[in-house]
Amino acid sequence: MIFDPPCREARLVKRYKRFLADIEFDDGTTATAHCPNTGSMKSCLEPGVRVLVSESKNPDRKLKWTLEFSVIDGGLVGLNTWIPNKVVSEALQKKRIPTFERYTSLRTEVKYGSQGSRIDVLLESPGMCFMEIKNATLYDTNQDGILFPDAVTTRGQKHLEELMAQVKLGHRAVLLFLVNRSEGGFLSVADEIDPEYGRLIRESFQSGVEILAYRVKSSPEAIELSDPVPIKL
Questions:
Q1: Would you tell me which CATH number, out of the four given (3.40.50.300, 1.10.3720.10, 3.40.1350.60, 1.10.10.10), belongs to the domain 83-228?
Q2: What is the largest CA-CA distance in the chain?
Q3: pTM higher than 0.90 for the full model?
Q4: CATH topology for 8-78?
Q5: End-to-end CA distance of the chain, in Å?
Q6: What is the pLDDT of residues 98-140, one digit of tens each?
């Protein structure tokens, strides 16, 4: 995925009302940016941190800037939770993820299941493959691992239940974590933050839901899928 124009660097002044972030550019000008992430962003967004923001070309948009990355120890941490679906969809279309090359149809945000959910990616022909995609950014310095989630997620719990239901119907179901920072040698579950999510993800794995993790390669100009990351459940 290309950023056009490339992202611009600034300093975070504060984040508030979940979706708003005040930023200051290096020339001293300030702006309010859209923050497309409802999570806690624990370990990756504190006042004063350097951030990268993208500029919208839409003249009718109220907020010109979007918060895309924070800069932690020289590396980029992806904050925009709209991006992972685009990155993974692009990689699937380019046949860059093993075992998914055979599918000839890709649709996004398709309504499915019994709880009114929308699947991030639905792959079809042959068969049906339901794929949920999660943005993982919580870094555990003690274990040198990336954990998910960074806050209690009842929505994420519901998604696991929906994926298990699809397996029971005979379909393929996948939970793919996009590890959106350079640190961390593996991906695991933040049981201390959301023990119910931890229970459900292990149950879903035992039930046949495939769980994958891939790191991204990020720059101010672009973001793309990179290498697989080991998973510890």
A1: 3.40.1350.60
A2: 57
A3: yes
A4: OB fold (Dihydrolipoamide Acetyltransferase, E2P) (2.40.50)
A5: 30
A6: 999 999 999 999 999 888 889 999 999 999 999 999 999 999 9
